[in-house]
Design a protein that fits this description.
There is one protein chain. The chain is an alpha/beta fold and about 170 residues long. It is built from 6 helices and 5 strands, in the order E-H-E-H-E-H-E-H-H-E-H. Helix 3 crosses helix 5. The protein is globular.
Length: about 170
């Protein structure tokens, strides 16, 4: 791995982001990858209907500052400048596709995303960007849940497969 796109959420609390950030820090250091912190600014995630120009004018600067702060607190060894990807008009699926497009345009080997592990009503109302990303992305995804333990050595990897040619190609990559 040379490039990892981090689907960062600068609005997430350090406590919520903490374990996932540790996993990302140790993984990226172990493989020597540069991390690209990216936030997808979208009007669709909360069901808002904000014109793209207004979204950019009102939210890009404060989100860029918040993303820079979150990236600094992550203490990653090799990090590219944080990026805001504007996805509007949008939906959760479009936001995931826009993040995947950014990853592909920057030749990323992997997208790292944190999962909150919500269930019940919270999940119904808040949804799951991580799950949507898994469904829409052609770039490999690494998801860290809230109870993830970081590993020092990457000597065992579970690779689910259907033994198709596509799975064999993904395994070789």
């Amino acid at each position: 791995f040379k490039k990892i796109v981090w689907a960062a959420d600068p609005m997430e609390s350090d406590r919520s982001r903490g374990q996932g950030t540790r996993v990302l820090r140790e993984f990226s250091k172990a493989v020597g990858a540069e991390v690209y912190p990216v936030y997808v600014l979208s009007d669709g995630l909360l069901g808002l209907s904000i014109p793209r120009a207004s979204l950019v004018r009102e939210f890009v600067k404060p989100m860029r500052r918040a993303l820079k702060d979150a990236a600094k607190r992550a203490k990653l060894s090799k990090m590219a400048p944080p990026t805001i990807v504007v996805s509007a008009p949008s939906s959760r699926g479009k936001a995931a596709e826009d993040l995947d497009r950014f990853a592909r345009m920057n030749d990323a080997d992997l997208i790292f995303v944190n999962s909150h592990g919500r269930s019940g009503l919270k999940r119904m109302f808040m949804g799951s960007f991580a799950e949507t990303l898994l469904l829409h992305s052609s770039t490999p995804i690494l998801v860290a849940g809230p109870k993830a333990d970081s590993e020092k050595a990457l000597d065992h990897i579970l690779f689910p497969t259907d033994f198709s040619e596509e799975s064999k190609a993904a395994f070789r990559k």
